């Protein structure tokens, strides 16, 4: 591979055999390297192929000490896999940059407030639980004390990684859409709706993976034939609510929602209804 730009001793931008610009990280990979020279591939520890703005990715990596990048890649990777997902390489960059910025804030005596904790706990309870454990593991290995509030931001990084969102902005947009779905359900069922219930948590999980399927163009279709009509007859209010959710999702996503996906929406809303009756 040919070197395009040397950012520091540990990060270079290079051009690979396919003509793509790739960001290479590894201790010493940029030491005495020059533009146009060959990369010593034995020194490359991590390789990133950004679809957009590889120079910006390289600049971010150049600010992160190699040992921090290695540690975050290990622990954040464990966290993503514990959620049943495969680690997207660029998610490591975003998470490592966040951890590095948090460490710098601690060194400056600054604190960061995360007012969305309650919302993240409602919409992404599993990611938050894993993120809280991730903060504990980072603190055990870093020699600093990241505040537990950082788990809120790391939970969103996990959500980004698990759903495969192309950016953190997209992850927040997906989270906002899930919140709109919950708001619509709350408007339908009133104060009896409990966003902290186990059924609500399962519904949020289903919505996360529905959004992944929708973005990838592979919604469920033809897998639950006959179940939809049965649910419609047994749970008419849940089915009507699911149709309202369908309209919201189609408006926000710009694509139709399949009948199978509507059936699963009905199923989850019916479970919420059942929980409401039990609490009453």
Low-confidence stretches: none
Query: Average pLDDT across residues?
Result: 86
Outline type = elongated
Helix count?
Answer: 11
Structural class: alpha+beta
H-E string: EEEEHHHHHHHHHHH
Q: What's the oligomerization state?
A: single chain
User: How much of the residues is beta strand, in percent?
Assistant: 5-15%
What is the CATH level 1 assignment of the largest domain?
A: Mainly Alpha
| CATH architectural group of the largest domain | Orthogonal Bundle
| Fourth-tier CATH superfamily name of the largest domain | PRD domain
Please tell me the total number of domains. Answer: 3
Helix proportion: 55-70%
Largest sheet: 4 strands, antiparallel
Features:
4 strands, 280 residues, 61% helix, 7% strand, PTS-regulatory domain, PRD, alpha+beta, elongated, 3 domains, 11 helices, four-stranded antiparallel sheet, Transcription Regulation, Sacy, Chain A
Describe this entry's structure for a reader.
- This protein has 280 residues and is of the alpha+beta class.
- It has 3 domains: 2-53, CAT RNA-binding domain (Transcription Regulation, Sacy, Chain A), CATH 2.30.24; 66-163, PTS-regulatory domain, PRD, CATH 1.10.1790; 168-279, PRD domain (PTS-regulatory domain, PRD).
- The chain is 61% helix and 7% strand.
- It is built from 11 helices and 4 strands.
- A 4-stranded antiparallel β-sheet has the order 1-2-3-4, with helices on one face.
- The longest helix is centred in the middle third of the chain and has 22 residues, at 168-189.
- 34% of the residues are buried.
- The mean pLDDT is 86.
């Amino acid at each position: 591979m040919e070197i395009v730009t040397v950012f520091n001793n540990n990060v270079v931008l290079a051009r690979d055999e396919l003509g793509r610009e790739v960001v290479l990280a590894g201790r010493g990979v940029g030491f005495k390297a020059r533009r146009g020279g060959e990369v010593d591939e034995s020194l490359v520890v991590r390789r990133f192929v950004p679809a957009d703005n590889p120079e910006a990715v390289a600049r971010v990596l150049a600010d992160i000490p190699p040992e921090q990048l290695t540690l975050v890649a290990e622990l954040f990777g464990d966290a993503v896999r514990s959620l049943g997902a495969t680690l997207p390489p660029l998610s490591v960059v975003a998470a490592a940059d966040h951890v590095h910025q948090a460490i710098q804030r601690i060194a400056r005596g600054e604190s960061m407030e995360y007012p969305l904790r309650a919302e993240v706990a409602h919409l992404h309870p599993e990611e938050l639980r894993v993120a809280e454990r991730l903060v504990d593991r980072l603190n055990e290995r870093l020699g600093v004390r990241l505040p537990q509030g950082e788990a809120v931001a790391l939970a969103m990084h996990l959500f980004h990684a698990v759903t495969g969102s192309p950016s953190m902005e997209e992850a927040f947009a997906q989270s906002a859409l899930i919140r709109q779905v919950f708001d619509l359900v709350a408007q339908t069922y009133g104060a009896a709706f409990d966003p902290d219930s186990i059924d609500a948590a399962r519904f949020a999980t289903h919505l996360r993976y529905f959004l992944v399927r929708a973005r990838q163009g592979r919604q469920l279709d033809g897998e639950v034939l006959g179940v939809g009509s049965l649910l419609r007859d047994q749970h008419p209010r849940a089915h009507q609510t699911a149709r309202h959710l369908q309209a919201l999702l189609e408006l926000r996503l710009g694509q139709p929602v399949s009948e199978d996906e509507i059936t699963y929406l009905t199923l989850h809303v019916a479970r919420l209804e059942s929980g409401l009756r039990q609490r009453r």
